[in-house]
Amino acid sequence: MGDVQKEQSEGDLLRRARRADAGAYHEMVDLYGERLYRLAYSLVGNREDAADVLQETFSGAFRGMRDFKERSSLKTWLCRILVKQAARHRRKEHRRRVISLEQCEESSGETAAATADITGDAKIDIEEAMRMLSPDHREVILLREMRGLSYEEISEVLGIPRGTVESRLFRARQELRTLLRDYETCAVRDRKERSDDVCV
User: What pTM value is reported for the model?
Assistant: First the structure.
């Protein structure tokens, strides 16, 4: 589809969505749902939460369609809503985990012992390394490297200056390289130790 045809199609979709046309809602989900779901999953880390974030994104977009000024593409606007919904979800989950941990600590002194060895045998791959990044760094990496957004689009999605996008992306890439390099070092050491055990 050419750019002109795409703009006309998107314009028609927006007009119908603003009239609360249910068909337009379903078309929007069909057009952008799969890509947005992948972004949601990368941001929140599991299928159920990603589905919730995606549903909240489309519901919020449809309710706020009249306020969409079309200064950016529909895709960019939907990404912006999704990133905000994912951040809201992470804050809610963080509060839930803090409350849960406090309750566990009150009821048992074994919490620290039970969690001490969680990372002992963990294997870090790229997906796990991404989860270890800060939310700010994970967002820019996902939007740039996995969703293919331009710096300007990322700036619009996150509501930050382009220079901030560039600096976050630079630091995020550095941090990701360090995590993966540390993993490779550990993997080589583990292989060597297993080999030594066999020899003995």
Answer: 0.63
Cβ atoms within 10 Å, residue 11? 12
- Which tokens hold the place of 17? 């969505």
DSSP state of 180: H
pLDDT digits (tens, 9 = 90+) for 19-31: 887 888 889 899 9
119 DSSP 8-state letter? T
Q: Over the range 114-151, which residues count as b (16 or more CB within 10 Å of their CB) and which as e?
A: eeeeeeeeeebeeeebbeebeeebbbbbbbbeebebeb
**Do 69 and 138 have their domain in common?**
no
- Check which CATH number belongs to the domain holding 149 and give it: 1.10.10.10
Same-domain pairing of 112 and 139: no
Residue 21 sits in the same domain as residue 108: yes
Residues spanned by the domain of 56: 1-116
Clarify whether residues 63 and 26 are in a common domain: yes
Mean pLDDT along residues 72-95: 83
CATH of residue 104: 1.10.1740.10
DSSP per-residue codes, 33-60: HHHHHHHHHHHH-SHHHHHHHHHHHHHH
Residue 176 to residues 42, 51, 64, 118, 145, Cα–Cα distance (Å)? 15, 26, 36, 21, 12
